[in-house]
Amino acid sequence: MRASPVVTPSLRRVELFERIRREADASGLTGLGVCSVEPFDQTRQDIIAANSSGRAASLTFTFSNPERSSDVRSSFPWAERLVVAAHAYLPTAGSPGAAAPGTGRIARFAEDDHYRPLRGGLHRIGELLRSGGHRAEVLADDNRLVDRAAAVRAGVGWWGKSTMVLVPGAGPWVLLGSVVTDTLLPVTAPMRRSCGACDACLPACPTGALVAPGILDASRCLARWAQAPGWIPEEYRALMGDRIYGCDDCLEACPPGDRVLAAAVEPAGRVDVVALLGADDDELRDRFDRFYIPRNDVRHLRRNALIVAGNSRDRAMVDAVAPFVEHSDPMLRGHAAWALGRLGGEKAATALAVLRHDRDPAVAAEAAAATAGTLG
């Protein structure tokens, strides 16, 4: 009579990991790995260096508290492992295509709530772990963990020169998340891959924000400026082009993402700028609730839309911009002045005349600088 195989704790953990992998596959997750929870010391040092040098600009999120975001046990003392997963949002997110009159562009990751399927898969993994008597906590888009560092340690992807994590088959077109657990699952090895000699992302950045491989100067990054509070510096406004939110330029240049990018043909991610400028606060918050807007203040979306209107050079946009010369917010009056200067023409000049002696010196200065452009 053959003896029954001995089921050791180690074997049970291997079997549990295989069940997790099957759940991840069934949930449509692109990559899966497991890593230890030792502090991400290099990541912490990198964040501190970015903060102290000014390269982090006003970035918050994981940059606000690097000691916490680089050490998951500071939030979960019981943690033993991170189950890390990726979700590819292309080709589902489609493509905004070429610039279209009267429209602004949204980066593909924000075209819809593409964190929803990622969170769904992670929650199912968490439920699986809890059903086995283990603790589990989902972290997705969460400032308690630098998810890119966890993904690299777990072997889900590798650091790209763009600072993005690149995942086989999807390149940089992924969102990342983790499940913190107290069970000692077997860890997966980091990938032995890199970008090699490829540096296509660096020259693709329209502002040179990628100052060196793997180093981002956020003070130059258009995606960061689209989310930043306050006035956008004049030198970046023309470079914003038709961007309402986010920037995909370095991702589009990344060869590992070419296959899914080529398959993303469904039109998506275009916004009617006139409608955006005319919408009320509640409508904007409801429509764009997935955006990271400073203090949930949608005037920053209007600010971005005014810049896009100015960059269109379409004088038909003057009627949508002109009402903002009487707006109560100086930031919007100032950006409206800049946009009217770009649009030009008699109607723009008439609207600008209202602001030449604005009570706010910054607005008056914007109007004075813009007036010459209205006659072009």
Furnish the topology, listing elements before pairings.
Layout: H1 9-26, E1 31-36, H2 41-53, H3 66-69, E2 81-88, E3 103-106, H4 115-131, E4 136-140, H5 147-153, E5 158-159, E6 165-166, E7 174-181, H6 201-204, E8 210-212, E9 215-216, H7 222-227, H8 234-240, E10 243-245, H9 249-252, H10 258-263, E11 270-272, H11 273-278, H12 281-287, H13 299-312, H14 318-321, H15 330-343, H16 346-353, H17 361-371
Parallel strand pairs: 3-10
Antiparallel strand pairs: 1-2, 2-7, 3-11, 4-7, 5-6, 8-9
Key features of this structure:
376 residues, alpha+beta, 4-stranded antiparallel sheet, NADH Oxidase, 2 domains, disordered N terminus, single chain, 3-stranded mixed sheet, 17 helices
